[in-house]
Amino acid sequence: MKINALKISIALLLVSILSACSIFNWEVERLKEKFVGDNMIIQTYDENSQLIDRIEGKSISIVPDERFAITDVDGEVVEKSSVLNITVGGHEMMHVGSSLIAHSTELHNYFNDYAKTYDIENQDKSMPFINRFVNEFKNVTTGKEKLILIRSQSGTPLATFYGNKVSTFSTTIDKTTGLLVDGERLFIYRCDYTIYDVALFN
Known about the structure:
It contains four helices and 13 strands.
């Protein structure tokens, strides 16, 4: 009985340490963004997952534009701003509304490769889209822990990322999710997404 309790304690300690590592890495990345910015690719999409624009740059920082936050009579925020204030190499842009994905230049969006060689409009009912995708990239996915499928707000696939170590984090911006994928940042704004254990497809 004591041995089982010891094993459980050790397991909990290890989980805590690993979780702390992910949180530490996320906070390091956030500090880096605040002080020097990240090298990132920013892409926005319409509801049919058609690319609207693509910006690649250095020293990119994404923060909520607090001027658009809704406050009560006491000045407390009751609804976070969903307007993005983005700086790219010292230049500013604002974004709101359409789906946006920002990711480290070190991350590869495998969906771009897939879309070039396969007709993604073909709705073959014999095999779901995600199964076709995983089968075509079976060699790429070997040993990978997570698959991230990102869709537009209407449900059309628009981006796919793989990672051995994937962690999710809340952000200070409404309707966004932050992820660390093998230590690299991925920022999802106003998109649907699913994160799968790749083992589900084996």
